[in-house]
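Researcher: Re-running this chain for the archive, since the previous output was lost when a drive failed. Same request as before.
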Amino acid sequence: MMIGSIMEETQADVVTENISEAADSLFSMFDIVLLAIIIGAASWWLVKRNNRSIDSLSNIKSYSIQPTSIVIQSPTDNSFVKKLQSSGRSLVVFYGSQTGTGEEFAGRLAKEGVRYRLKGMVADPEECDMEELVNLKNIPNSLAVFCMATYGEGDPTDNAMEFYEWLQNGDADLTGLNYAIFGLGNKTYEHYNEVAIYLDKRLEELGATRVYELGLGDDDANIEDDFITWKDKFWPVVCDFFGIESTGEDISMRQYRVEEYEDAPDRVFSGEMARLHSLKNQRPPYDAKNPYLSKILINRELFKGGERHCMHLEFDIEDSKMRYESGDHLAVYPINNTELVEKIGKLCEKSLDTIFSLINTDEESSKKHPFPCPCSYRTALTHYLDITQNPRTHVLKELAEYCSDPAEKEKLKLMASTSPEGKALYQKWINEDNRNIVHILEDLPSCKPALDHLCELLPRLQPRYYSISSSPKEHPNTVHVTAVLVEYQTPTGRVNKGVATTWLREKIPSPDSATPLTVPIFIRKSQFRLPTKPQVPIIMVGPGTGVAPFRGFIQERNFTKVEGKQVGQTVLYFGCRKKDEDFLYQEEFLKYRENGLLTLNVAFSREQAQKVYVTHLVEKDADTIWNIFENGGHLYICGDAKSMAVDVRNIILKIIQEKGSLTEEQAQVYYKKMETQKRISMDVWS
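Model: Regenerated C-alpha cells:
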C-alpha cells in the first residue's frame, strides 16, 4: 500500500509537468486562464453531484504517504537519551516492578553510580521511548541496567509489558548498547525469573554487549542478599570495562530534599494515589492511580470454630462502570495501623501533623516526589509508606548515622555490610526475628532518625491483591473476596498483624450507620480464565482460600446450566482442617453437588490420625483426571506456590506418565503442550 501510494504520487507529478510544458507551448496566457476556469467549474459541478451520494464512497480506497521506518530514532520529549545528554549522565537504570522492589533496586544502583564516575538516572520503561536504546551508544561510556521482575506465569510487570513486546516483535540493531540485568523472581514459581532470562538473551541477539553476567534474585530465599552480592561484583567489572576507577568514597546522598510548611498550602494530599481530591470527586476509569472508593456491603466470618478468622467481603461496584470476569483480582489499598504510626512519631520525636514535601534533587527526573506531596507525616506513614516490612540493608546503613550509641551504630553498619558476619546477623536479627522499622527503633533507643529521611527510605505501601470469589454473571454489581486474617507472634514476643486483613476485619457494615464503610479498590485483569466453551470439562485444585476463584467459576457454570445450556464436567478438590471448623462455602458447594453441577472432593487434614491433603485425593483420582485430559479438559491450581502447587504438578506428571504409558520426558512434553494450549493455569502465591 505504501509503495503504491508513492508511485501514484510520482506519476501524478510527471503528468503535471507534462501538462505544464504543453500548455506553455500551445496556449497563450489568456487561453490558459480561460481553460483553468472551465476545468474549475467542471470540477465544482462534479464535487457537488458526488456529495449527494456521499455514502456510496465508503468503498473507495484512501491512500496516504506514510514515513518509512528508520533505524536511528530522533530524540523525543520523553527521550531518556536527551535527558542523559542534557544532564551529563551516562548510566540509565530501567525497572520492571509490580511491588516496588525492582524500582527500589534501580534507585540504589543509580545512586551508587556516582562512586564510579557514572552519573545515573532511574527510568520507567512505560514512560520512555524504548526504541531509543539504539541511540544510547552515542553517549560515551553509556550503560543501561535493567532491574526486571517476573510476574504471574512468566509475564513482565505491567510497566514493562510494552517494552517486552517490542523486544519480542522488533528487530532493532542494538550494536553498541552496553547492558547488565538483575532479575527479581521466586523459585517457588515454575517460570522463575523468565523475563530477565529472556531479556538477557534477546538483547544479546540484537547485538548488544553484556557488560556483566545476569543476576537472579530469589524472593523465596533472600533477594536482598542476592542483590547486594551481585551488585558488589558488578561495579568492579563495570570499572574494568570502561577503564574507570572508583572514587573510593562511600557517598551517602539524599535523593530528596525536605520542605516543611508553617502554614498549610492550599493543596494538601490526604491519601489520594495521584489526583488531589480523587477520593472525594470520583470519576472513571478506575485503576491503580485512580482507585474506586467502594462501599463494603457484607463482611461476615466464614470459619465456624477455632482461633483463626476468615472473611467473606462484598464490595459495591454498581456506580463504578468497572467490569470484571471470573478469575480476575481485586486490588485493595489498605492503611497502616494507627498505633504503629503514632509510635514512629514518638520514636522520631516529631509532630505527625507537620505538612511537608519531599522534592527530588534531580531536576531531570520525571519522579518529582516519592509519594503524593505535600502531605502530613501522619498521612505519609498511614497511606503511602510500608512500615511493617523488614527493612533492607541500605535503610540500616542510613539509620546507623543517627545512632548516638557507638555499639548500636556498629550493629547497624555490620548488618548493612556484605561480610559473612553481617549477612548472618541481618538474616537472624531482621528476617528471622521479623523486625519492622518500629521494632528496630524500639530496640535501638539511641537511633533517632530525621522523620523526613525515614520517609524517603521506606518503600511505598503496595495494594493487596485478592482472587475474586464471585461471577459477574450472578453478581454484576458486587465483587466478592475471601481473605484469612494474618496475625502471628514473632521470636521477640511481638504480635505482627497483616496490614490489609487487620484493617478490613474492623470494617463491618451496620444498617444503623448513616456513614458507609469504604475501601479504595480497582480490578486487575488476569489470565486465569474458564474455557470459552462451557461444555469443556474442568478440574480445580484449591485448598483453603485457594478455592476463592473457583467459587466464581462454579457460580458462572451454574448460571449457564440454569439457562439450559450444556455444561461440562466440573470437578473440585478442596482441602481444610476440619469439616465443622473451616470448610469454606460448605452449604453452597453441597447445593451445587446436589443439583448435579459439581463433583466435590474434600480433604479434611486433621479429622483422622494420618493427615489427608488435596494431593492425596488428586493422586487417588488418576483415572478421572486422565480421562478429562484426553477429552480436552482444563486444569486449574490456586493456592500455595511453595509446596501444594509443586506437589500437585508432580502428581499430575505422574498420572500423565502412567495412564498415558509415556516416558518421563514424554509426560513433560504432554504437560507443556497443555500449558501452551492454556489448558493448565495457576493462580498461586508464596
